[in-house]
Amino acid sequence: MKTKEIIIPEISDEVLTQRLKQIKYVTQAMQGIDGKVYSTDEQDKNLFDLFYVESNVNPRTEAFNFDENRKLTTRVTGLKELLTKDIFVSIGGYYGFCKITFAEVMSQIPDEIVSEVVAFTLNPEKDPKILNDNYQSASIIFYGKGEELKKDNKLPSVKDLIKPLDLEKAERLKDKVKPILDFQGEGLIFINPGDIHQPFIKVGIWLRINGSNLHEHNTETKVDFKTRLGKKVSTYQSFDNELGADFFHPNYGNTISQIPDELINENTVGILYNSTDYFKTEEGVVHKTEYTLVERV
Question: Whole-angstrom Cα distance, residue 143 to residue 116?
Fold first, then answer.
């Protein structure tokens, strides 16, 4: 089988300048209820939007996807996918990084769609691939103008979901109803909530890997008595991490404030973490975390 020849076409300064005016770099992100835009690798298109990216790197010599000064600006509207295409990228520096220039993208737009293209993004569903010592391939999605999608007017309001922090309730319950993790083969473990304003569990949902069971270095205590599982409850929290929407840091105060008092009885000893996901509201996307109440038998 004949190997495909690797060629990155030449592009003149004039054509490059013209295409950069016509075609904008966009990326997927989530807008939180605070109005800020957070990057995400989420795959569900109902949860993220596309946003224009402002990047002032040299289009021939600097990688736009490694631009630490890039800014997400306004939400993109009225786009449709035209084509997803693998392009060739020169390897520069550490081979594990796929550093892409605007010139590499602009020079490899197929002739049959170049007049229609108004935006492009890196395809989050396909990782770059090493081809040889000098080249990699990267998947690019090209967009043209399309019809604006109708907004979902049936979304709930976050005002009905997130209850305000109840300091008295949190301080009263933190020694009675503790966070619990379930380590495979080790049984249930209490985690001391510590300062109710600080994260008590550091849950990583990067790429939607729920339930990673990581926690800050708070004190652990094995649950050494018989328990039973009670009702499930869901709590909601706004994004609070500049690393993006895919990182979540719940804290005890906000969590316990959202559990109805009538679900907590004299036998309740903890809340068992189940999973974290995203939840879309009228005001923006929030994190939704599910717990199960645990009772002493």
Answer: 8
Q: How confident is the model at residue 130 (pLDDT cuts 50, 70, 90)?
A: very high
**Span 144-154, pLDDT tens digits:** 999 876 665 68
Specify whether the CB–CB gap between 55 and 27 falls below 8 A.
Answer: no
Distance of alpha carbon 232 from alpha carbon 223, whole angstroms: 19
Element (H, E) at 18: helix 13-22
Instruction: Name the strand (E) or helix (H) holding 102.
Output: helix 102-106
Query: Cα 221 vs. chain centroid, distance in angstroms?
Result: 32
167 pLDDT higher than 60: yes
110 backbone dihedrals φ, ψ, rounded to 5°:
-55, 140
CA neighbor of 182 nearest in space, from 257, 94, 272: 272
pTM: 0.80
pLDDT in tens, 27-51: 999 999 999 999 888 888 889 999 9
**209: β partners:** none
Please state the rounded mean pLDDT for residues 161-178: 92
Looking only at the bridges linking them, the beta strands covering 79-90 and 285-296 are unpaired
What are the two backbone dihedrals, phi and then psi, of residue 238, each rounded to the nearest 5 degrees? -75, 160
User: What are the E-state strand segments in 4-127?
Assistant: 24-31, 37-39, 49-54, 71-75, 79-90, 119-122
- What region does 35 belong to: left with phi over 0, alpha with psi -120 to 50, or beta? left
Phi and psi dihedrals of 246, rounded to 5?
Answer: -80, 0
Q: Residue 108: CB partners within 8 Å, gap ≥ 6?
A: 8, 9, 85, 87, 88, 140
The confidence score (pLDDT) of residue 252 equals 92
What does the block give as tokens for 120?
Answer: 């492009």
